[in-house]
Structure formats: structure tokens, C-alpha cells
Amino acid sequence: MGRVIIFLLSSLLIFSLTAFNYAAEDDWGFYAHRKLNRLAVFTLPPQMMPLFKAEIEYLSAHAVDPDRRRYATPHEGPRHYIDLDVYGEFPYDDLPRDWNEALVKFSAIYLLSTCDRRGGEDTMLLYFPYIHFDEEVLKEGNAYGDFEEILALNYQQFFNQRVPRNFYRAPWSYPLNEWPELDSLFPDLSGDCATIFIENHISKYGIIPYYLPILQRNLTRAIQQGDKARILRHAADIGHYIGDAHVPLHTTVNYNGQLTGQEGIHAFWESRIPELFAEDFDLIVGRAQYIENKEEFFWDVVMDTHLKVDSVLAIEQYLRDTYPQDAQICFDDRTFQTIQQPCREFALAYEREMNGMVERQMRKTIFAIGSAWYTAWVDAGQPELGDVAVVDPSHLIENDSLMRVYRRGSIYGREHLNN
Ligand SMILES: [Zn+2]
């Protein structure tokens, strides 16, 4: 009977291992995001301090707003990650670093005809993008058509003139005759009964390196305009996404170890370790530096982060296999419940085996956030920040409503912590 109980206990434990249910909070842990924004302030030059130091509590507290926004809109999720490995092999040369090019290449094109007078409908697939992961792993991509042939039909120009370059997966539609080169291939169809549909297949795999330069421009513009509320809001926001861009598991389709039986690794790496050890980390990183080429900088960050994915996964697996089983998961009494999470010593072993990777990534993040803020200020003409006015109180209203939907609870997109 003892064995039965042990069996039951151990299966409970396995269940909770896979659930890792302690991690109600999100990426980097809310704790780490707040700390990263806070420490980034100390990388700034004295001229920026009157605003940034005075508002350090705001910058820290609002470091987590983007995660709350994921509860308010389905468009938010993909801004927090990019599953680079769905595109094949490092360095993913098939993935354009320019958003417009990427969107053109990874959107499907359909032609819908209702020209049949008897009321029939006909849908024709003209192009469907090849995505390595969809084809080779999911076996459900069904790439179709030749992109070069599509381009030869002057597709790029048609696309540039009409398709909104947004990040969301909404099929865009246009009358066939708006794309003359395609129209001429279908003499039997006329523009008022034939429609082109263009469908985004890239956003679902994340867009963070494409989104960061936009945030950088928003922050620069806010500083130019001297709008304090916007400056703070955009600064807090970009700090969050730069933080996400430094988390290796935000750059892989195996974002929670779910493809390799390592569920829970996401929160283990980015929440549990910082919460346990960040107070002991050396997070003083020196002065922020000017970023010349923003697009390149953010891509470099993401690629550098991505190179660590293998170690993150392999070392955790090694420890799962070799570390004493009964010393991996500990029980922790919190206010309303007992939760299970990786034990302190186990977490320490993980961070040590990774040669202090979490600490290094936090250092890099702080430096990158400070440099992005500093660069925006330089690009805005280095205005005095001491007495910028508070305008646009609407952002405060947004934050109130964010808190309401956040408390209400259900998240759009990935449930599993890949924020
Ligand atoms: Zn996030």
C-alpha cells in the first residue's frame, strides 16, 4: 500500500511539474521587468535624469503594461516574441529583416470568383508561403506557387500601394482589376466579381524585432513633442519589449519546452531565477551608448539571444536527468495557496551550469534599454527634460482599463507564458 501512495504522490508531482502552476505571472516575471526598467535609468546621462529619475517609479511599475495589454487585444501577443526556428536554420537568411519584405513573402494570395452567373463560388490558391516548421514538423503548410513568378507580376508594387503593413492576421481584399498584371491572366473574370485575398502568415510566429524600431520611433517623437505622458509610456513599453528580446525562450517555437517534454522551463528561466537571485546579481552596467542603426541593433539582440536557446534547453534537460529527483521541486506557502516550484538549490545549479546566463542577459537588457532611451533623446535633439509638461492624461485612462481587463483574466494568444 505504501507503494501505491508513493505512486500516487509521484504522479501528482509529475502533474504539477508539467503544470508549473506557480507562475501565474508573466515573462521575465513581473519582478524582473520592473527591475530592468528601474536599473536602466542609472545608465542615462545627467541631462535625462530630471525626468527619468523623477519618474523611476512610473517606469518600473509600468514595465509590465504590455503583458496586461495581452488580455485586452489579440494583436498584442505576437509583439513579445519571434519563433525564429520555424524559418529553418540559423541565421535564417530566408527571413527578410525588413517587415514589408517579410510580410510580402509570408502572405498567401487567393483569388475568389463569384462570376459564375448560377451563383457558384470559386476559390483559387495562387501562392502559399513555405514555412519550414509548418511543412516539416506540422506537415500542414502546403506551400504553393512560385514567389518569383508572383513577383514578376509586379506583386511588390501592388502590395506596397495597397496593403496596410500592420502586424495582424486579417485577410485583406481587393478587386482583381486593381492588380492589372494578374487581371490580364484571367480574361474571363471581371473586377466586380473577382476578389484578391491576401492573408498574413507571419505574425503568428511573432514580430518582436520588427516591432521594436517602431517603438523606438514613437519614443523619439514623444520626446520631440515634449509630451511627458507619452515619453514615459513609450519608454516603459520599449523597456518591456527589449527585456523580452533578451529571453532565449522568446525566440523559439519551443517556447515552454513543450516540444521536448520540458514544460515549465519558460517560467523557471525568466521568473524563478531572477526572483531568487537578482538581488545578488551584478547589474551595474555603465553608461548607455548611442545606437546608430536601430533595425540592425534590435535584430542583433534577437539573434544573439536566440543562439542561447540550445543551452537553455540542453542544460535544463541535463539537470532534470542528473539532479536528485526529490530536490528539484519545492513547496512554498504563499498567502492563499501552496505552490510548487524549482527549489532554490536546483535553480542555482541551473544558473551556474549556464555560466550565469540569466545574470548576463539581465545586464545586457539594462544596457540595451538605457541605450534605446538615450538614443531616442539624442535623435530628438537632446531637449531639456526637466520641465516637460504633463499632457495627454488619456494614457492613465488606458492603464485603468488595462488593469480591469487584466484582472478579469483570459488571455489572447498563447496561454503559456510566452509573452
Ligand atoms: Zn512580454
Q: Ligands bound here?
A: zinc ion
Could you report the average pLDDT, rounded to the nearest whole number? 87
Rg from alpha-carbon coordinates:
24 Å
- Percent of residues in helical segments? 40-55%
Order of helices and strands: HHHHHHEEHHHEHEHHHHHEEHHH
Helices, by number, come to: 18
The number of E-state strands comes to 6
How does CATH name the architecture of the largest domain?
Orthogonal Bundle
> Which CATH C-level class of the largest domain is it?
Mainly Alpha
Tell me about the biggest sheet? 4 strands, antiparallel
CATH H-tier superfamily of the largest domain: P1 Nuclease
In the CATH scheme, what's the topology name of the largest domain?
P1 Nuclease
Overall 3D shape: globular
Sheet/helix structural class: alpha+beta
How far apart the termini lie comes to 44 Å
Strand content: 5-15%
Strand arrangement in the largest pleated sheet: 2-1-4-3
Write up what this structure looks like.
- The strands form 2 sheets. A 4-stranded antiparallel β-sheet has the order 2-1-4-3.
- It has 2 domains: 267 residues, P1 Nuclease; 107 residues, no CATH class.
- The N terminus and C terminus are likely disordered.
- It is built from 18 helices and 6 strands.
- The protein has 419 residues and is α+β, with helices and mostly antiparallel strands.
- Zinc ion binds next to helix 5 and helix 12.
